[in-house]
Amino acid sequence: MAENPAFAASGEEAITRRIDVTPNEIPGELSPEELEDYYDIERTVREVEKGDYKRIALQFPDELLRDSVPIFRRLKARLSPGRELYVLADTSYGSCCVDEVAAQHVDADAMVHYGHACMTKTSRLPVIYVFGKKPVDPEDCARKLLKSLEASSTVIENRKAILRHDVAYAHRADKILEKLKAALPSSTTLQYSPIPLTSYPVTSSSTSAQDEVLKVTNGSDQTSDTVAEEGTPSEIILYVGGESLSLTNLLMTHSHCEVHTYDPNTGTVCLASERTNKMLMRRYAVVQKARDADVFGILIGTLGVASYLPLISHLRKVLARAHKKSYTISVGKLNPAKLANFLEIECFVLVACPENSLIDAKDFLRPIVTPYELEIALRAPQSWTGRYVLEFEKLLAEAPDGTQNVSADPEKGDEDLDQPVFSLATGKYRHAKRYGAPETNANLNDPSSALVLRDQDGTVALKDSAAGAFLQARTYRGLETRIGQDAPAVLEQGRSGIARGYADDHPSGG
Q1: What b-and-e string marks burial along 104-131, b requiring 16 or more CB atoms within 10 Å of the CB?
Q2: Model pLDDT for residues 193-216, shown as the tens digit of each residue
Q3: Range 376-394 average pLDDT
Q4: What are the φ/ψ torsions at residue 111 (nearest 5 degrees)?
Q5: Which residues contact 196 (CB under 8 A, 6 or more apart)?
Q6: What does the pLDDT look like over 77-92, one tens digit per residue?
């Protein structure tokens, strides 16, 4: 009989599984000299020796693992004795983030991050970034970006332009900047600051966390970041790179700017900001679903980004003030099967780096929102200007006590407890549940609001439990203990042997 692969997989699929990557995402076959240059072997050795790091973790994304062994050998041969190197393959969350959790398993005091990086500030370890060096033609880039500006009838005289690019083109950014300055009118101001190749944790003795993250995330000084961030229509953003999460986040956070992109892989240009409104509309639809939720799950999508713990505490305060129930969950890399196990949760809030925060939840059972979208959903007036924030520090700076503009106000008491709420997602009225309400108005005899636990002292009813209410509504609630009601079973001798041929003590049975 043929073996059913659904129940008895041989494991071949896991070995032969192919990793889906976008074209030109990985370098081709590199000669020894090209590999040295592409992965900045000499610079990495200098930075390690300069910092006197003893245990260094090398973090590779899946698509670059094939080069991990030759890189390891070259670094090991050139570093001074007494330094240990460890290759990190499978990341805890996104490969663009620095995996400080895996690095702590080997007690590393520094990391080298290879490939694409989101450039979020770390909270514990110094990081040496090796982006790789993708090819780009600076002259063709400048010419076609200028052509895109002319085709869209953009007035560029006496305006401010900001150059942004994917991190893989940082090695040619100076040449691109030179060609763009020569192509643009002299009255146009072109701003750019290099992306840093190293990053250090935020400390209390340094400048403020917000300024530090802005410098590293955007790769420019505070003045140009503030200009781009405000998103006034007078700015033009020139982006060098293909379709990616970096470009998506740029469009979302700079929705008022005109963004022209150049893709070095195909040599094409386009006005990318034309689709920004559609992207914001899709996110606004998710926000409306979050307004209807009463039970939230705070998903931990990072353990390395600075200020992630204060943000989680901030979200708990906001949800508690709005009389919402919240659970904090860490499941590693997200997939629909994992989150489907938490059926009592009606909406998830993902705390992750900017590039991993925007999740297209079509395949997920529940909507997934960002912390900023959650705050919009909990605001009493249903309004959104289109402003979008993904940085943790900005959210905390704008609401330091975690209680601004939420829909519920405990000073008003429970006068609106039974008032129905209109849902824009369903087009119907609904009665919102309120968790953390005063006990005087709560119906403690309602079996749907209590979960009965049995322990040595008897039974205890837990009020205000969303999981308990969900369990009471289910037809099957697990096996009952029935302590003291059923007589203990008689112990019998079991079978012995191995699975293919047990020795049965009762041959008459078969």
Answers
A1: eeeebebbbbbbbbbbbbbbbbbbbbbb
A2: 889 999 988 664 443 433 433 333
A3: 79
A4: -135, 150
A5: 119, 129, 215, 216, 219
A6: 999 999 999 998 777 7
Do the Cβ atoms of 344 and 467 come closer than 8 Å? yes
Pairing of strands 421-422, 429-430: antiparallel
The runs of H, that is alpha helices, within 231-358 are 245-253, 276-291, 308-321, 336-339, 354-357
Question: Distance (Å, rounded) from C-alpha 235 to C-alpha 29?
Answer: 41
Please determine, for residue 245, whether its predicted confidence score (pLDDT) is greater than 90. no
Burial of 205 from C-beta contacts in 10 A (0-12 / 13-18 / 19+): exposed
Res 335: pLDDT = 87
The answer to whether 366 and 296 are in contact (CB under 8 A) is: no
100-153 pLDDT per residue, tens: 888 988 999 999 999 999 888 887 899 999 999 999 999 999 999 999 988 887
Residue 199's beta-bridge partner residues?
127
Radius of gyration of the chain (CA): 28
Q: Which residues pair with 87 in a beta bridge?
A: 58
What sign does the CA torsion over 105, 111, 114, 115 have?
A: positive
Residue 75 predicted with pLDDT over 90: yes
**Phi and psi based region of residue 257 (left: phi greater than 0; alpha: psi -120 to 50; beta: remaining):** beta
pLDDT of residue 115: 92
Whether this prediction's pTM lies above 0.90 is answered by no
Query: CA-CA distance, 277 to 95, in Å (whole number)?
Result: 29
Amino acid 41: pLDDT: 94
Work out the number of other CB atoms within 10 angstroms of the CB of residue 421: 13
Q: Which residue has the tokens 């308990």?
A: 468
Domains and CATH numbers, the chain: 32-130 (3.40.50.11840), 138-278 (3.40.50.11850), 292-410 (3.40.50.11860), 444-475 (no CATH)
* Structure tokens belonging to residue 372: 């900023």
DSSP string, 443-480: -TT-GGGEEEEEETTEEEEEES-HHHHHHHHSS-----
- pLDDT over 50 at 450, yes or no: no
